[in-house]
Every structure is written in C-alpha cells, then in structure tokens.
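quick one
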Amino acid sequence: MKILVTVKRAVDYTVRVRPLTDGSGVDIANAKMSMNPFDEIALEQAVQLKEAGVADEIVAVSIGNSGSQDVLRSALAFGADRALLVQTDAVLEPVAVSRILAKITADEAPQLVLMGKQAIDDDASQTPQMLAARMGWAQGTFACGLTMGDAEVTVVREVDGGTQTLALPLPAVVSVDLRLNEPRYLKLPDIMKAKRKPLEVQPLEEMGVDVGTKTRITHYAEPPERKPGVRVQSVSELIDRLVNEAKVL
Amino acid sequence: MAVLVVADHSGGTLADGTARTITAALELDATVDVLVAGEHAQSVAEQAAALNGVNRVRICEDAAYAHQLAEPMATLILSIIDEYSAVMAPGSTQGRDVLPRVAAVLDVAQLSEITRVIDKNTFERPIYAGNVMATVACDESTQVITVRTTAFEPAASGQSALIEAVPAPETPVAARFVEESVVRSERPELGSAKVVISGGRGVGSAEGFKLLEKVADELNAAIGASRAAVDAGYVPNDYQVGQTGKAVAPDLYIAVGISGAIQHWAGMKDSKVVVAINRDEDCPMIQTADYALVADLFDALPELEEGLAQLKAQ
Ligand SMILES: Cc1cc2nc3c(=O)[nH]c(=O)nc-3n(C[C@H](O)[C@H](O)[C@H](O)COP(=O)(O)OP(=O)(O)OC[C@H]3O[C@@H](n4cnc5c(N)ncnc54)[C@H](O)[C@@H]3O)c2cc1C
Ligand SMILES: Nc1ncnc2c1ncn2[C@@H]1O[C@H](COP(=O)(O)O)[C@@H](O)[C@H]1O
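structure w/ flavin-adenine dinucleotide:
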C-alpha cells in the first residue's frame, strides 16, 4: 500500500512573526524555517505503518520554493522512500495547493493521504478537506488515533466536546492532530541515507495547474497591543484589584 | 443575494457559536438564512428561528445528518448554494471540517476564522498564531467563511422566523460513524464563558485540577488548559486553549502554572483581563499578564477560593 504525505515548509514554531512596518508582508526573510509540526506527525504515522508492514511505500510531497528541498530531505530521513517538490516562489492559497495535490494524488494513486491538520503560518486548516472533496473521497480530520483495515481506515478525531470515531472507505484523506504520536528524533545515519534517496523537482509552470484565486491579502498589521500589566503582591491584592480596578468580579 | 449560516448543534441544543456567526453574517448582508441539518432537528431549528435577524431557517432532517459528517453536510450545502453569495459557519471543529469541502467543489478560496467584517469584500483574520492580523480581499463568486466566534457577540433571541424543509440529496462517498465520546459539562462553554481559569503543566496532575475546579465554582467559570496539561492527560483534549485548540475571549482569564508560549497566547490574547499565577517571574505569562502574581499555585489557589467565597458572602 502506498501512502502520500504532504509536508509544508513553514516558519519555525518558536519564531514570533511580525508584520513589516509598511504592512506589505511579514518579516520572515531571515527567520528559521522548519517542517510544519503537524506534518512531522503525519510522517511519523506513515513510517509507523510501514514498520508495521501495512504500508510499503511512502511518498513525501511539498509545494514551495527551493528551500522546501530541506524539509523533503528531512522527510526522507524520517523514512519516506522518495520525495517530490513542486517548485514555485508564489505563496499559494490552500485551494490552489489542493488543485496541485489533486493532480499528484491522481497520478500517484495512493490508498491514503496523510496531512497535517493545519499549517502554522496561514492557520487555514483547509487543504486536507479540499483535497478529499476534489478526489471525491471521505475525510478524517484532526486525527488522534488511526487503525488501518483492509478496506477501511478507522480514525479517532478530536472534536469539540470530546472524540469521535469514523471508518473511512479507502482511499481516503486523514489530517492529523498533535496527540496522534510523538515524532522521532532524526539520527545521523538516517540523514546520511536520505541524501541518496530520490528527490524529484518539478517546476509548477510545467504542471499545467492554474493557481490563481480571487482572494488576496492586502495588508498585514500588528494585533492590538496590550497595556503593560502590574505585579500584585498577594491573593488579597489580586482580588481587590479585580473588583475595584478591573471591575471583572 | 443572501448569506447562508450553517448551524452547529449537538444534543438538541444550538451552539452559542451559531448565534455569534449570525451576527457576523448580518454585518455582511441583511438577509441571513440558517441551515439546520440533523436526524431530529426541529427543536434546534426553532432555537435558530428565534434569533433576531434570521430571515428563515432551512431544515433538513435525515439519518444521513445524525452526526453532521463532512461529506453529507457539504453535499447538502452545495445543493442550495446557488441561492447564496456567501456561506458561513462557526470556526468550531464542525465548521472547519465541512466548509473547505464546499469551497473546493466551488473551486474558491476559503477564509478561515475571520475576526472582522470590514466591508462586503474585505475581512480580517489572524495568521501566524495571531501575531499578525491580515486584511483579506475576497472577490470569489461565492464567499466561503468560517468565523472566530469570540470576536462577535451572539445574536439575541425574541423573534420567530419561518422554518422550511430542504430535501436531502444523495451523498456518493461518506465516512461511517462508529462511536463518539462526548463529555457534557455543567460548566459554561469555554468559547462563551465570562470567566475562564486554565491550568498548565505546573498544575501537575488531574488531582491538581480539582483546585482549579473549586475556584471555577466560585466564579461560574469554564476550565481550560495548555497543551502540556492535555498531553499529560490531566484534562480532556477539548480543554486545550491555543493556536491549535480553542480560542477564548472572556472578561477574565486566569492562567495557572502556564508559561505563556506563543501558541497558548494565540488562543486567549483577546481576553479583556488576564491574570497569571506562576512561580517563575521571568516566564512570558507573568511578563504579559494584566495582573501577575508570582506564587506557588498550590498556596495561591486555596487562598483565592477562600477570598472569592468571602467576597460572595459580603
Ligand atoms: C504546532 C504546535 C501547536 C501548539 N498548540 C498549542 C495550543 O493550542 N495551546 C497550548 O497551550 N500550547 C500549544 N503548543 C505548545 C506550546 O508551545 C507550549 O509547549 C505549551 O503551551 C506549554 O504548556 P505549559 O505552559 O502548561 O507548560 P510549561 O511551558 O512547561 O510551563 C509550566 C509553567 O508552570 C509553572 N509552574 C510549575 N510549577 C508551579 C507551581 N507549583 N506554582 C506555580 N507555577 C508553577 C512553571 O514556572 C512554568 O512557567 C503547541 C506547540 C506546537 C509545536
Ligand atoms: N505548500 C504545501 N506543501 C505541502 N503541503 C501543504 C502545503 N500547504 C498545505 N499543505 C498540507 O496541508 C496541511 C494543512 O494546511 P493549511 O490548510 O494551509 O492549514 C498542512 O499541514 C500540509 O500537510
């Protein structure tokens, strides 16, 4: 069984991103970049399925600029068998990414596509559901548990109020949440081995996919600033201030 | 044209997020219809019809919608979408699951978790864990939007709009529901509570959260948590506040034993007043809170409970 895993290169989660002062973009030219954390979890799940003998091939796919080769190399070090970069310098809306992924998914014909539930840069949480809809497949979003059967994959989902378990006919798309697993640390021998694994680069222009949308960001701003706070010395002072100053009690 | 709001409901109760989404929808267009789908959804439809500003409620009752799964829900929305210029849903796990399928079939970009309607084609939404607010121009043929519900007040109720049935279309491929484990709490909902008290890794155990519960009882507060507390199993996953959990914006947010990582701030930074209780005076939560108490939480929480009880008695 073949599994496709999508990996996005995003600003590292430890970086506090700021808008440029003229509001034309975000100040990330020199920021540390990493694999979107949720995509590491998706990869870890795929590798576990391969180790369990359920999957026999893992293909990692990324859409982004040449820097995305780094995250694909990490994906190969994790245990992906080969990688595909659709190279573009454009920043794409999730719907445009889903058009590209639909084409790749149709070509690769995997039984399962594993994706992160959310990219931590655009915080959209859309692409997996969009890919599932385009393929006409069922989806299991926000997965914190996954069991492969012969014709179905069973997914435990984190939902408001608790969890929900669904069985999806294969092929299917699953988007993963934080508590699905703990991604492994990459070991040096694996990183060395990854250098010899195939990484194909395909320019977006050669794919014949229109990535235009009628949606665009026109301005980037700081969120409203909070007033500096005060240090209280005791619980009674805290209560007093909440009653008399903040008037929230 | 009109805006369609997809109702979020469970256990026969319309979610508060729907009333807030209606407020956002009314800022976009004067005509707002609400779609209620479920197996037995009449009472939910009546709750939606009572919300001021609702033009009409469209109800679809069928076993296919018993759990409002994404595939049948998207197919149903698409069957009536031609009548609308925009479709909106709360940015709950439900809305986030369903709407992107609708957007993909329409082949339009979706806007996730808007915090402001600036005009008919311009919206505001947070990106990068809320560290940047993006102004987004959306000229799609149909606007597909989820709403950060804490950014909008709930529509009041008092009227009674028309309720009309919609036929259920066939859904080609769908997930099969197996089971769910939903805990219903006596406390107010996290997303709409006036006071939220959240615990982090510092609380140390599920037992430790009992101290928070006692304070929450005094304040009629909802209980939240950091990712670390959820991962450690102190509380269920749906308590998680943050970039990848729930967004809250109460009048008062009390963070106990939480260090204040970017991802946690993302979910509570719109709270009016933030209190931090932490023994590390250098942690970001203490640095940024409106009222910071540097103390051991195991001393501070019982004192707080007692002080609040005295306040109530006065
Ligand atoms: C992709 C991604 C998404 C994430 N999403 C979220 C999210 O949605 N929400 C979220 O919360 N986090 C999220 N995180 C995790 C986040 O980065 C932090 O790791 C997490 O918020 C830390 O939780 P904490 O503050 O409880 O734990 P810690 O950072 O370990 O802080 C514990 C605090 O407790 C204090 N403490 C300990 N004992 C006591 C005591 N006796 N009395 C008083 N204080 C005490 C310590 O001083 C410390 O400040 C995410 C991370 C990633 C990578
Ligand atoms: N440019 C991209 N390249 C590869 N995967 C992507 C890309 N954009 C989104 N994804 C996948 O879709 C998930 C959700 O992203 P989003 O819908 O942008 O929040 C991510 O976790 C990735 O797995």
